Amino acid sequence: MKKIFVLFFALLFISPLVHAQKKQLSLKDAVMQQYRKFYPDFVRSFQWIPNKNEYSFTEKQSLYTSSIKNQKKVEIANIQEVNENLKAELYGFYSLKWKDENKAFLNDGKNYYCYDFSTKKGKTLFAVKDNAGANTFNENSLMTAYTIDNNIWISGPKGKEIEVTKFKDKNIVAGQAFARSEFGITKGLFWSKDGTLLAFYQKNESKVHDYPLLNINKTPGELNAVKYPMTGQTSEMPCIGIFNIEKQSTSYIKPRGAKDNYLTNISFTPDNKHVLIAEVNRDQNHMWLNLYTSSGEFVKTLFEEENPRWVEPEHPAYFPNDESSNFIWISEKSGFNNLYYYNIDGELIKQITNHDFIVKDILASKNNKIYYSATGENPMNTLVYCVGLDGKKQKLLTPNEGTHSFSISSNGKYFYDRYSSGKIPNKSLIWTMNGKMAKLVNVAKDKLEEYTLGSTEVGSINSVDNKKLYYRMIKPSNFEETKKYPVLVYVYGGPHAQLVTNNWLNGASLWMHWMAEQGYIIFTLDNRGSGSRGFEFESGIHRQLGTLEIEDQLLGVQMLKKLPYVDGDRIAVHGWSFGGFMTTSLMLREPGVFTTGVAGGPVTDWKYYEAMYGERYMDRPEENKKGYEAASLINKTDNLEGKLLLIHGTSDDVVVMQHNLMLVKKFIESEKQIDFFPYPMHKHNVYGKDRVHLMTKILNYIIENNK
């Protein structure tokens, strides 16, 4: 009995001592180190080596290989050695792409190399100009395409350079992403597989408004103009060029409908004979998938899709077999992204998947099977599935809930699975295709274990139309049910975004945990209109941005106020971009609910926003006057109750500062006092060390005013 008492008292004193020894997270570290020293360890630069059951990865400045059969790792090179042999100045192996089991391609963004790790010899393939951008390398032709200013160049072996376009008019822009990167567009250069053809976006912006941004770093200051087509205004005129390397000639494809229709989702057929392009009308409610010859001649429209709200193709045609022009198209026409298998005449061979959840992307194809990512039944997950081209033998490959990434071996027998969840910082495994674990590669420890952090709760509530709305709630480490806590609601709420996810920290930013330790509850809810939930969930916002989103956010507030530990009179709200629009909307359309709001880079009236995004969700101003008026915050400044801080980067070319300045002007006219803080020369968000200043400004403002 005496020993039991001794043990009891020892534990009594040791427990608080252990807690006291934990470190306190500083706001600076929370902002700057989330993806640095705090990020869970993972296998860097994992790649399967062709024709082997081995893979490569990097540690520091060295390249290693390992087999699936054991945990042994073999260093095959360090970057100093490779640089000496190549007479190069590579910073690391981040660009490595295996050519075969011994050779790999490397580049530093300017110089391109091929290196043989078995012989320790290599060669310089070519170099591109110092001011080149958007470098796009083709490993079959050993050429890279790139842009200089508004034109396209190609460099190849033996220093050969080709000037593809020669536009002196800066209003004609070739080789860059267009349509302000909507419709899944992330680049402007597209090689055919063999590298004999180069497709590229080209746009005529001569009739697009020049929007002035002030550069204060010059004396005197000067205006930098960006092309910014606002909703309802004249937009860019697109076309697609196809450059033939052998013929040294370019063919052009223009929209078949209106001149300002969108051209997107470019893909070459495996035999190089044809190119598929999705054309979307300016109203974004009609899509034609068109087939052209590789010399730019129209062949036929393969099929069309229409929807009175919107049609938004985001994935090019995928060819699962190099010997066939049959392709897979990802379509949302069933209400959820699914896979449809077509022949080159546009005839449906098979609907491969019929999920009531979304397919996110096609990851690979092997042996007549398609590997793809999807949410599964829980939309917070990203899982990996496979299915036959005939739609049969569908299988979930990643049974562990979480957010997975995937890489398949060259023989198709194994796959690499790296995933995290709310409970697992990072875990990497290799599986056989029949579901057996072949190797545990890495299990990361939680680097935040030695810091004092609170708890994260994930749950859901129902919208008024019975849609499940997922939320995340972060509580302080010393949380007590009997206390009353103020709340910070962090909101985004816009299309394509999903804040509550089943991955590391459940999608939260570390500054939220710092704020929780100041005695706050941090609450985030993904309202209707958010991403990863299917067309009906997302598209209810059409022509009425802010309405359903506010309704759902208020349901979250109602839930919070029913909790015995929430101080319902001390609720603040903060968000950026669409979240800034939501923050300001909540303050002005529902006055009195929140004591304090901080809105960063907010849209304040959709007539000031860019056409490609704004017209999809709101139509043009003349077509939806009531919708624009209801969503506008410019005409609601009289409603303000509480404290409001508006923030904007002065060089913002996404949500231009006119939004905030017009709102400030209206607040002055309404004789309402608000706070405004600019971040000079920052664009749509504030990055680098200045972000610490930003988050200090935001969180201090909330702490000081949410009373």
If you had to describe this structure to a student in words, what would you say it looks like?
With 707 residues, the protein is of the alpha+beta class. Helices cover 17% and strands 35% of the residues. β27 and β28 (369-374) form a beta hairpin. It starts with a helix and ends with a helix.
The CATH class of one domain turns out to be Alpha Beta
Shape: globular
Total of DSSP H or I helical runs spanning 4+ residues: 11
Strand order of the largest sheet: 35-36-38-37-39-40-41-42
Share of helix, binned:
10-25%
Named CATH topology of one domain: Rossmann fold
Radius of gyration: 27 Å
Helix/strand layout:
Layout: H1 2-21, H2 27-32, E1 44-48, E2 54-59, E3 62-67, E4 73-78, H3 79-86, E5 97-98, E6 103-107, E7 111-116, E8 121-127, E9 133-138, E10 143-148, E11 151-155, E12 161-163, E13 172-174, E14 189-191, E15 197-204, E16 210-215, E17 222-227, E18 237-244, E19 249-253, E20 262-268, E21 274-280, E22 286-293, E23 298-306, E24 327-331, E25 338-342, E26 348-351, E27 359-366, E28 369-374, E29 383-388, E30 395-396, E31 403-408, E32 414-420, E33 427-432, E34 437-443, E35 455-462, E36 468-475, E37 485-490, H4 510-516, E38 521-525, H5 535-539, H6 547-562, E39 566-576, H7 578-589, E40 596-600, H8 611-618, H9 625-631, E41 643-649, H10 658-669, E42 675-679, H11 690-705
